Amino acid sequence: MLKSDLILRSPAKKTIGAENITNGQFGAVLSRAGVGKTGFLVQIALTRLLCDEKVLHISLCDTIEKITIRYNEGYASLVDSIGYVDAQIAERLWDEIQHHKTGIAYNNESTFTVNKIRDYLDSFKGADITLPTLMIIDGLDFDTDLSDTLSDLKQLQQDFGLCTWFSMKSHREEPLNQNGYPIQLEKYDMLFDRAVFLVPEENKTQAIVLKDGDRTDQKFLLDPASLMPVEE
Amino acid sequence: MIRDLKRVRNIGISAHIDSGKTTLTERILFYTNRIHKINEVRGKDGTGAVMDSMELEKERGITIASAATHCEWDNHAVNIIDTPGHVDFTVEVERSLRVLDGVVLILCSVSGVQSQSITVDQQMKRYEVPCIAFVNKCDRSGANPLKVCKQLRDKLGHNSVMLQLPIGLEDKHEGIIDLVKMKAFYFEGDNGERMVEADIPAELKGDAEAAREEMIDAVSLFSEALTDAILEEAQITEEMIMSAVRTGTIAREMTAVFLGSAYKNKGVQPLLNAVLDYLPCPLDIRNEAIDLDNNEEAVILDSDFDKPAVALAFKLEDGQYGQLTYIRVYQGCVNKGDTLINARDHKKVKIGRLIRMHSNQMEDVDAIPAGHIGAIFGIDCASGDTFVSPNINYSMMSMHVMDPVISLSITPKDNKAQINMSKALNRFTKEDPTFKTYVDHETGDTIIQGMGELHLEVYVERMKREYKAEVDTGQPRVAYRETITRKAPFNYTHKKQTGGAGQFGRVAGFIEPTEEEFEFVNKITGGRIPTQYIPACEKGFEGCLVKGPSLEFPVTGIKITLEDGAYHAVDSSEMAFQSAARGGFLEAYNKAKPVIMEPIMKVVIETPNEFQGACMGLINQRRGIIQGSQEEGVMSVIESQVPLSDMFGFSTVLRSATQGKAQFTMEFSSYKQAPQSIADEIAKKKAEEKAAKNK
Fold this sequence. Notes:
The structure holds 2 protein chains of 2 kinds.
Chain A: H1 2-9, H2 11-15, H3 18-21, E1 26-31, H4 37-49, E2 55-59, H5 64-82, H6 87-98, E3 101-105, H7 114-126, E4 134-138, H8 147-160, E5 163-169, H9 183-187, E6 192-201, E7 204-211, E8 219-222
Parallel strand pairs in A: 1-5, 1-6, 2-3, 2-4, 4-5
Antiparallel strand pairs in A: 6-7, 7-8
Helix pairs in contact in A: 4-5
Chain B: E1 8-15, H1 21-31, H2 55-60, E2 67-73, E3 76-82, H3 90-99, E4 102-108, H4 115-127, E5 131-136, H5 145-156, E6 160-162, E7 164-167, E8 175-178, E9 183-188, E10 194-198, H6 202-219, H7 224-231, H8 238-250, E11 255-259, H9 268-278, E12 288-291, E13 297-300, E14 310-319, E15 322-331, E16 333-335, E17 339-342, E18 348-350, E19 353-358, E20 361-365, E21 367-369, E22 373-377, E23 386-388, E24 394-395, E25 406-412, H10 415-431, E26 436-439, E27 446-450, H11 453-467, E28 471-474, E29 481-484, E30 488-496, E31 503-513, E32 518-522, H12 534-543, E33 558-566, H13 574-589, E34 594-608, H14 612-621, E35 625-632, E36 635-643, H15 650-657, E37 663-673, H16 676-694
Parallel strand pairs in B: 1-3, 1-4, 4-5, 5-11, 6-11, 32-33
Antiparallel strand pairs in B: 2-3, 7-8, 8-9, 9-10, 12-13, 12-24, 14-15, 14-23, 15-22, 16-21, 17-18, 17-23, 19-20, 19-22, 25-27, 25-28, 26-27, 29-34, 30-31, 31-33, 34-36, 34-37, 35-36
Helix pairs in contact in B: 3-4, 10-11, 12-13
């Protein structure tokens, strides 16, 4: 009961639709620095964790401790958005689902390789354990040439039946293209079929669905601190 | 004994397994005329190298215990401790490094930096011991000393500088080029005992000159005179270079790299020269103690022989004739007949017999002066104890003792073995602080703990050989727990009223899960159960927690609320209510859906990044939950939670999966409900054990 209530409140479900999180090729959450890409990705991950699915969260910028804090905060925001929830019940649910998430933190991009992730996922197969269904990659620098990396990740996605969401940092001074995409997305347009652009607007954050089939161009307002949908 | 400390060297020979430490030491002893015949470590004649004195060492071809010896080279006294390479015996390296002034780090020219090289390097850092490196086995196929020098830099962060080049490698390895003297050296004679100096072969001159330039550039940082000579293009003398290398080495800011093949008798004599030229003498090392009479203020120890003696006991050997205590004297002089105080327990000890060791042979001496290593016979102490003259109260830092990582249950095969096993365990735990033993109060098993499976295997074998104690080993039993998962009522009457004094007591209430281990709540009103019997009820309930009704594991996490009851004016008693409480508990327990809890361990693995996937796989295979993996430089730290029952043998598996380069720590985290399949297995085992007991 609590699980389904939490999923309903999820900003990921609201904007992209829960079913679209795992369909398709790559997904991206774009914004300038500090607007909430990682927080939104965490909400995407929580939606899957609440469905008892495994999530692999790879960070090239945050430490493991920070990733853990983000998930704890993301879950707390989700719980608070419902209203009153018995603290013990909420804690028990968190104890149950957080074990489905694994974080891998790299010092920086230079030490991250797709092969490392492949080795890790191969070990699941070897041990006959359920694979993660969702992989979050936070911190890849889309200002550099990532063609090889993305190609390898695409292959990884196919081999292991994963879906992958990325954070993509845009820059204030760069103009958007005619579709309203930041350059970073334009470069790899063909690979991404879901993209959400977070834009600060006055004292809210606007989540613009850049790519998502039938929700394209829809806009949603989120609270900038908790990223929870704001009732309009 | 040489008293000029400038002419004394206390060195250790350390490396990964099978790098050639003992072989090298054998050559050193031969060339210094300490022994007159070279015996190989795994020799065909079965004799074995002199430093491997234990039968087990000779049989297995491994060094198990560190062995001390001394020799003289070029009018210098060299005390050598040859140490084991297996990580299981790491305490031997630890204790040796604590008391040595310098180390020769041996690396295989093919395998390069390996897991125990990493461990030894960490140990050298801990005790701030300078080192030089010897790239051994240059006669092996695939030998590449330059690659090894680079690995020293990349993997261990050393400022490694080649001071030699090889003349030929693999089966063509003939000699070495000394880049300081710019001469070639060959080794002639049946055992390479004659070192012959010659000109550098013409085809290698270019490489040698380039390498020398590089070497001089690297070492010039440690010598102003050398730097000036380079800038002024003045003549660079051998003395300038050697002085710079020595300064850099002692400051631990560079590692001079030498090469050769101990087995083929090449490069050993130049290495010995390097030990004298570049490794520190006791005067170069600052040794500190704390003054226990002066707020534990740090005091610097002076090698002056006339000052009060300060010595550290770093190794014990409990033998047939008493305890042999190896000591390093840091200040003053320990003389035969002296009275010293043990700083730990303030007991006086009289020095009866002083010994210098040559492997397992003893030579009586009259004194061990500061800067030297020796042994005392017949005193009782612990490893790490400081001995001082009566007029001072100093203590030295003991060595670092690692926590055991593996444990086994052992059962003596018969009564005689039990007695001998106890004697053996007493001795081994005294000699080796990383070997521990205890009796598990819950299961009654004797558990031995150590640093690895080899470590424990060796001790079990030694128990058998040295104490004639045959034991069976097995997996330690896991300390499971039981708990309940829902609320359940009880309403139980204990009645025995068949004439004469009877027993009567009724208790009613409920049991429910709780976060605490045990809670008892009394909600009796109206005197339904007299107050004086309430503690008896609580005692009765508590008594049931020791062994759970279903599987006899301790019960935890239960809250019992007593709401109602009844008593009889004559037949009620404390005993009656205790029995009633027990009955009530048993009535409710199965209704409360009991489950088995298993201990979950927090396991942290530190591994080179290339093995991150493999390590995570090992955890996955053990029902572990990986909480996260953090890359830190060239290493990854993986944190996970793994059931203890699946951790048996993990150290060995981890070592194989990561070429010995990963390490892990394990500590208790919490109890969690065991999966049904595991619970069923445990129940089945318990039933089988019960059936076997009843037969």
